[in-house]
Write a structure and sequence with these properties.
Blueprint: H1 7-15, H2 23-31, H3 36-44, H4 49-57, H5 61-68, E1 71-73, E2 79-81, H6 82-89, H7 92-101, H8 116-127, H9 132-140
Antiparallel strand pairs: 1-2
């Protein structure tokens, strides 16, 4: 999955000149408003689950929930739910953090309609890794089988 192609992502990249670490999202939270693209960037760049959780907790829960149900424009005009980034990273802990904050575990890509649960299963084959824990996390958080 490609990195989000948005103005916020470009701003995020411009602010970050060094190798990202867990304090990067804290710094972004001080410099700019909440951004779902920043969350996706943090997941893709290997920031810890606690850094992702801290960033989400910094903002009003209603705002975070609304934004987590949006999609991030990727390549080929396909819009991916934020949970796709957590599944791609194979992090059940981030899946649970995002779902507890309001991400919909049954959300699908637009316009293709690929559910995150199916993406998790396909990722196991494509990435040749065991995504069982992510699959269980999605089901436990209410993904529609």
């Amino acid at each position: 999955m490609a990195k989000p192609d948005t103005a916020t992502s470009r701003t995020t990249s411009a602010i970050i000149k060094k190798e990202p670490d867990d304090s990067t999202l804290d710094h972004l939270g001080e410099c700019q408003d909440f951004s779902i693209e920043a969350v996706g960037w943090g997941i893709q760049n290997g920031l810890s689950p606690s850094a992702i959780a801290r960033y989400l907790e910094r903002w009003p829960a209603s705002r975070v929930k609304h934004e987590l149900c949006q999609t991030i424009k990727g390549v080929y005009r396909i819009k991916h739910p934020i949970l796709f980034y957590a599944v791609e990273r194979n992090s059940p802990e981030i899946v649970r953090i995002l779902c507890r904050a309001g991400a919909d575990p049954s959300q699908a890509t637009q316009p293709l309609g690929l559910p995150v649960l199916a993406y998790c299963i396909f990722s196991a084959e494509y990435e040749l890794c065991d995504t069982t824990d992510c699959l269980f996390a999605l089901l436990a958080m209410g993904a529609d089988p």
